[in-house]
Amino acid sequence: MKKQEFKAESKRLLDLMINSIYTNKDIFLREIISNASDAIDKLYYESLTKSEIDLNRDDFNIRITVDKDKKTLTISDNGIGMSEEELDHNLGTICESGSLLFKKEKENRDEIDVIGQFGVGFYSAFMVASKIEVTSKKFGSTDAYTWESDGLDGYTIKKSKKDTVGTDITIYLKDDDEDYEYSKYLDTYEIENIVKKYSNYITYPIIMKKTSQELKEGTKDEYEDVEKDEVLNSMTPIWKKSSNEVTEEEYESFYTDTYYDYQKPQRVFRNSVEGKCTYISLLFIPSHTPYDFYGKDYEKGLSLYSNGVMVMEKCPKLLPDYFSFVKGLVDSPDVSLNISREILQEDKEVTQIAKSIESKIKKELETMMKDDREEYEKFFENFGLQLKAGVYEDYGMHKEDLKDLLIFYSSKNKKMISLKEYVDTLKEGQDKIYYASGETYDKIDMLPQVENFKEKEIDILYLKDYIDEFALQVLREYDGKTFVNISKEDVNLESEEEKKTIEEENTKNKELLDFMKESIGSNVKDVKFTNRLKNHPVCLTSKGAISVEMEKVINAMPTDDHVHAETVLEINKNHPIADKLKKLYKEDKDALTKYTKVLYSEARMIEGLPVENPTEISNLICDLLSK
Ligand code: ADP
Question: Which ligand 1 atom sits closest to the C-alpha of 79?
Fold first, then answer.
């Protein structure tokens, strides 16, 4: 019999596992029990979908046996079992998900922590085992095999004997040492506590034999020295219990254990719906952005159960993309067990449940926004981008559903507000919603264009996410008020009178302005005097649909489609520089060219755009300084 080596990644993880002393070792039992439950699910599912298999749900169980003399703990299930190949493949390679998480997380987290947080399934048993034996008989097969390993030098598989279908996992506990008391896992009281803590809602009975001394009060028989089976877990799935029967802590630990999160959820909400579609949902909003949330491997979806039996672990159909951050499950008697991935897409019941779930999530978010703004802001920090992307995607198909969930930073309130709140406090006569984009709120706040608005006490929404402006462009208006970028050339804040004066000023100086435009070249569409600036000398605005911020975003994307905002250099008509320019036009055109180039570069810098020819500009500045 040849010894097989563990695959490289597994070996490394094993070393870590075996040698880590900080990890919560108790979780090994949860991992083993959860595998047992999955194996039973698989067989039960087969029996429901194939008429030739006649099995009863009550026949299934998971059994824990303690042997104090041999110092072993055996976890047995009568689930689907594993063939020889499966033993080799499943237990010889580290579980895919575990190793993936491991790779991604190890860059920025303490390695030992990682194991504690995610658990890596079967392998975690090597934290407490000096040897593990897995004897399994696959459903439908007559042969049984035993896989055996001490966790260090690989594993062996040999033919063996087992009467019933299923799997026995025997853990040979390590000897106690000064760091850890492994023998505690031989104590039935200890085992019971761990099962209750981590595996209470496993839907099959977890049975352990207890001696008369160990049995619960009331069930024990004082006079007889007998052993009795006892079911350790409550079995009713947590989602089937009404919310007032479950404590917050229970929901939280269900969440952290099921979704491998190390932080409790921000929000838990359960719904029991009857009517057009009947279902129970238990949903969670994570309290932080999962590390892979914006990666392409992130899979959205809710687990789908049919009367307590899992049909699909992650059903994407149940969540729209913009709510992809929601985790949880749906249990419905209306969902057929035989449903395949493909059919799911079309399934009427599932479609209806998905619709209902979507509105539940929306309602939950609205309530949070209304009743607990601070919490909502935290939520929006984590997942707001997803909602804004939702407004933008599918050609704005979902914008009506999402617009009231958006919040933006308001210059006047100095905090996040909703669009409704903006509109509710509009200044009289204001029929626009103004916004400005930039990298940070501070930077936006310093834009020259902002000053004028502040003086007129007009609120501006500050946008700092790359997607914001695109989302607002898709929305176009809210409550009849159109969105306007304050950096657009035609923002129109002036009175008719002011407009007239500035037009006159620009006509009068047409030749000067044309000369300046020539000096800059094709990069600006126009140069003009403005009265939109208070103390600042210049600013860059844009014409047309593409703003300067959008240009930056689009051009940063890895495509060849580059765009150009049509920019306008605006010069404060009341700034001393205006007079200087007029004077230079008459006296020194050469100097005017230099001034123009410097001013244009200043305006670009303020907008966060690169200066196109920094050496030339730096020389020009020195040239002017030394005069
Ligand atoms: P994971 O459960 O995350 O896939 P594990 O390392 O815990 O990773 O288990 C690897 C695989 O071994 C499981 O996916 C399953 O196919 C198989 N397995 C483990 N325990 C059992 C069991 N008791 N019965 C049948 N198959 C099992």
Answer: 24
- Total count of domains within the chain: 4
Same domain, 338 and 286: yes
Q: Where are the alpha helices (DSSP H) in 393-508?
A: 399-402, 419-424, 441-445, 448-455, 468-475, 496-508
pLDDT at 51: 84
Q: Is the pLDDT of residue 21 over 50?
A: no
Q: Do the Cβ atoms of 77 and 122 come closer than 8 Å? A: no
Please tell me whether residues 533 and 561 are part of one structural domain.
Answer: yes
559 and 438 both lie in a single domain: no
pLDDT digits (tens, 9 = 90+) for 105-155: 444 444 444 444 444 678 889 889 999 999 999 999 999 999 999 877 788
- Ligand 1: list residues with CB < 6 Å: 31, 35-36, 39, 77, 79-82, 90-91, 95, 97-98, 121-123, 167
Buried b or exposed e, range 121-134, using 16+ CB within 10 angstroms: bbbbbbbbbbebbb
Is residue 512 domain-shared with residue 542, that is, in the same domain?
Answer: yes
Query: For a pocket test of ligand 1, which of 14, 38, 89 has the largest count of ligand atoms closer than 8 A to its C-beta?
Result: 38
Q: Are residue 476 and residue 498 in the same domain, yes or no?
A: no
Range of the domain at 260: 238-376
pLDDT tens-digit map of 364-373:
999 999 999 9
- Is the distance from CB of 419 to CB of 477 less than 8 angstroms? no
In a domain, residue 382? The reply is no
Q: Is residue 242 located within the same domain as residue 227?
A: no
What's the 250 CA to ligand 1 centre distance in angstroms?
Answer: 25
Per-residue pLDDT of 164-204, as tens digits, reads 999 999 999 999 999 899 999 999 999 999 998 778 878 89
Counting ligand 1 atoms within 8 A of each CB, the residue from 10, 60, 90 with the most, and so the one to mutate, is 90
Which of residues 436, 459, 486 is at a domain's end? 486
